[in-house]
Amino acid sequence: MPDYLLIITAAAILLVTMAYLVIRLGMLSTMVRELLGQQARLMEDKHRDMLKDLHEGLSNQGNRLSEVLGRNSDQLRGTVEARLDQISGRVAERLDEGFRKTNETFTSVMTRLATIDEAQKKIDSLTTNMVSLQELLGDKRSRGAFGEVQLEALVRNILPPSAYEMQHTLSNSSRADCVLKLPPPTGMVAVDSKFPLENFHRMFDRHTDDTSRALAQKQFKADVKKHVDDIAGKYILPPETCDGAVMFVPAEAVFAEIHAYHSDIVDYAMQKQVWIVSPTTLMAVLNTARAVLKDIETREQVHIIKNELSRLGKDFARFDERMKKLADHIRQANQDVEEVHVSSRKISQRFARIEAVDLEPPQLEMEMPVMEPADEENSR
């Protein structure tokens, strides 16, 4: 009987408590609805005030911008007008200065033209007294100096300084105009730049009759052969020099005349191991000599190139070996990264399971009703 009364009492207390909670919940719901309504009205009022203030601010800002733009426009207009006035003034000054300089230039040009006219008159007067190149080279020394200058210019422009020497004295006390220092087996080649031209000029003199011209041609051949003999006797000294020498003809016309109409002279020179060259053919010979010198220099450097290639091969072998080691390290690092990734994924999954297990008991406690100590004793 007492247990029955206790149960009824507990049920009544529970009903009263639930009724109280229902009433409190209703009151709280009503208060929340009222608070939400007040908050909504306050928000609406604030929103309306903000829109009003924003509209007024925008209107004021627009007015101020209009005023500022108006003032700036006026200032800009005044500045532009002032600048245009300055530019117009400067343009006028520049035009005046340009016209003045143009007049000065025109006056200077006229003065210079007058000076040029005077110089032209002097040139015309000097032309009548000018000595022709043929008369200037009539002397053997002048002709030799002209050939030496032309020969030195050609050699200096093509060969390095170590490959030639001007005015070289041989062991027989003969002085060559130039010697070419070529590599073995050629050796040193002497070049002579003097050439007999007296009879060549007589051959083409318009005031000479046919008999004199034929005699001059015969004498020209004799002069050339004698010059070939002199070169062969003076400058071919094996083993000091090579077994040949070069006869430099400083005029292309003379060279063409010899090869076109005097082939017997060319054959005679070849028999004496004397090579007749003109400025054009000498340039080809010098270019060939330069190529030979460069080839010899390259051959001398072959062993250095071989050593460098050998060292480069060893360096490349070491590079290949180190590259293989690096590839192995990269492969191992990639494998380690994959294993670490697997371990990380497993740890993450375990953490997820642990978190799921830890979160379940609190959910059960929230769902279970709260029991008084008396209820626990009755349940026991």
UniProtKB/TrEMBL annotation:
Record carries keyword Transferase: no
Signal sequence segment: none
UniProt entry keywords in alphabetical sequence: Coiled coil, DNA recombination, Membrane, Transmembrane, Transmembrane helix
InterPro entries listed in its UniProt record: DNA_recombination_RmuC
Pfam families for this protein: RmuC
Gene Ontology BP terms: DNA recombination
Family that this chain belongs to: Belongs to the RmuC family.
Task performed by this protein: Involved in DNA recombination.
Listed name of the protein: DNA recombination protein RmuC
Organism: Nitrosospira multiformis
